[in-house]
Design brief:
With 124 residues, the protein is mainly β. 0% of the residues lie in helices and 52% in strands. It is built from no helices and 11 strands. The strands form 2 sheets. Strands 2, 4, 5, 6, 9, 10 and 11 form a 7-stranded mixed beta sheet that branches. Strands 1-3-8-7 form a 4-stranded antiparallel beta sheet, with no helix packed on it. Strand 7 (67-72) and strand 8 form a beta hairpin. The chain is globular, with a radius of gyration of 13 Å.
Length: 124
């Protein structure tokens, strides 16, 4: 599976951005797609996941109610709509694909394919 994220950029606090992650390759074998982020000096953290079976979603507490993950199966694309952005949302955002759920959908260890990341900068 190859992943390519796009849609990052610079936005003022309170603004919105939509990230996209296009998947190619053996996408039929995926169990979930997720978004993670990493700020300078911090470890990469879970943001959101879209789970194939049942169509459920999962969010971190820090973005719940502000971010929405969705997918377009026909386009093999997952989106992350980010509203009410805060300066602390500034990070490199990575999309990832999971083949199983061994460690839970919020764990990086569950995801075995990663995109190169896209920078999101929120100014105050």
């Amino acid at each position: 599976v190859q992943l390519q994220a796009s849609g990052g950029g610079l936005v003022q606090a309170g603004g919105s951005l939509r990230l996209s992650c296009a998947a190619s390759g053996r996408t039929f074998s995926r169990s979930a797609m997720g978004w993670f982020r990493q700020s300078p000096g911090k470890e990469r953290e879970f943001v959101a996941a879209s789970i194939w079976s049942g169509g459920s979603t999962l969010y971190s507490d820090s973005v719940k109610g502000r971010f929405t993950i969705s997918r377009d199966n026909a386009k093999n694309t997952v989106y992350l709509q980010m509203n009410s952005l805060k300066p602390e949302d500034t990070a490199v955002y990575y999309c990832a694909a999971a083949g199983g759920v061994l460690f839970g959908y919020s764990s990086q260890r569950t995801y075995d394919h990663w995109g190169p990341g896209t920078q999101v900068t929120v100014s105050s």
